[in-house]
């Protein structure tokens, strides 16, 4: 058992390669805190998390002043113990996005370190349930795109082997229906179409729209309501045959318990970068399995491919490439499936020269 001797952190601000607009916001940047944890044996674990353009400096400050110093001298192998201690150390700021995002960067680094020392890839170390997971794409379904662009992208992705595509909804309902119908007519019945409202609707509007979407045979209606409206999601779930998907905007594993116990969702989209790391991600995935609910995580495909392969109830990985400029090798894809890396650790091939070149000025932190 080796003690943690040093913690390094830096933040990279990544501007998306394509314009991303949904019903409530634009994704203008990805602030990406990256952490390296060193132990007394000389082993290094690397982890990360993200924001979509706000809060990154606050995440880095929490790491630099509170969470990072608490790691020095700890036994790096005691990942669950460290996660719980950090949770209670920050009890005054939990449940909260800034704390969860900061903890995610640390926890993923600890898991990377654990896997590297064991000589195992994450998907094996965390469970070893699958060797590949189906892919769907979101990159061609943004709300600002016209109908022709949606159809063109869906046809292209189906030809490339993807099993489905996500379309953003939130235009007037007749426009949403026309856009989904155009894509369905183009790709046929054997290609999944998912929809995402990004929390844009009130309950009455969500129920109304679900009735319009039902004949189009969509795979799920994602985030139809604000994430803290469990009652509304329960009412909606009882009123429609559409699968209701939630999770990307939940920052505690206990919130998923509430949704699952009340039958307020039928797809769980837990995000490792927002839930607080791999440790709570696995808790949510196994809890969902107990309710016979599928896990289809939000974003961060480069790490979710391994986590999805670790658990038996993961069904889809979301294709949104965002780390290409920070890595020397992308996620492996074969016949429309995401393939987890067989290398020890998270399976992410970081390009440290690129990270240093793109680092936000003044964001480097070193603790020892």
From TrEMBL:
One of its GO terms (biological process) is carbohydrate catabolic process. GO terms for molecular function: hydro-lyase activity; magnesium ion binding. Residues 147-243 form the Mandelate racemase/muconate lactonizing enzyme C-terminal domain. SUPFAM superfamilies: Enolase C-terminal domain-like, Enolase N-terminal domain-like. Transmembrane segments: none annotated. Keywords: Magnesium, Metal-binding. Its cofactor is Mg(2+). Pfam families: MR_MLE_C, MR_MLE_N. PANTHER family: ENOLASE SUPERFAMILY, MANDELATE RACEMASE, MITOCHONDRIAL ENOLASE SUPERFAMILY MEMBER 1. This is Mandelate racemase/muconate lactonizing enzyme family protein.
């Amino acid at each position: 058992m080796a003690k943690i001797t040093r913690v390094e952190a830096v933040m990279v601000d990544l501007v998306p390669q394509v314009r991303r607009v949904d019903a409530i916001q634009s994704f203008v940047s990805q602030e990406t805190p990256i952490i390296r944890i060193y132990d007394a044996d000389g082993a290094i674990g690397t982890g990360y998390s993200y924001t979509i353009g706000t809060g990154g400096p606050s995440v880095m400050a929490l790491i630099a002043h509170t969470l990072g110093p608490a790691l020095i001298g700890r036994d790096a192998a005691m990942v669950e113990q460290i996660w719980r201690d950090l949770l209670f150390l920050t009890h005054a700021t939990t449940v909260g996005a800034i704390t969860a995002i900061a903890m995610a960067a640390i926890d993923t680094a600890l898991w990377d370190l654990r896997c590297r020392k064991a000589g195992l890839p994450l998907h094996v170390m965390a469970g070893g349930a699958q060797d590949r997971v189906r892919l769907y794409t979101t990159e061609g379904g943004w709300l600002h795109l016209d109908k022709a662009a949606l159809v063109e992208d869906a046809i292209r992705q189906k030809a490339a082997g993807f099993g489905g595509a996500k379309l953003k909804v939130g235009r007037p309902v007749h426009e949403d229906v026309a856009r989904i119908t155009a894509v369905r007519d183009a790709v046929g019945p054997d290609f999944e179409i998912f929809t995402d409202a990004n929390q844009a609707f009130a309950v009455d509007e969500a129920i109304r729209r679900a009735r319009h979407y039902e004949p189009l045979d969509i795979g799920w209606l994602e985030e139809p309501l604000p994430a803290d409206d469990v009652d509304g999601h329960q009412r909606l779930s009882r009123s429609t045959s559409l699968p209701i998907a939630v999770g990307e905007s939940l920052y505690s594993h206990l919130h998923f318990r509430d949704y699952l116990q009340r039958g307020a969702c039928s797809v769980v989209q837990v995000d490792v970068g927002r839930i607080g790391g791999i440790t709570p991600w696995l808790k949510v995935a196994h809890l969902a399995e107990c309710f016979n609910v599928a896990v289809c995580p939000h974003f961060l495909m480069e790490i979710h491919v391994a986590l999805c392969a670790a658990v038996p109830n993961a069904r889809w990985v979301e294709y949104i490439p965002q780390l290409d400029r920070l890595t020397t090798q992308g996620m492996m894809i074969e016949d429309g499936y995401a393939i987890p890396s067989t290398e020890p650790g998270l399976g992410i091939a970081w390009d440290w020269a690129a990270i240093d070149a793109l680092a936000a000025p003044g964001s480097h932190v070193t603790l020892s």
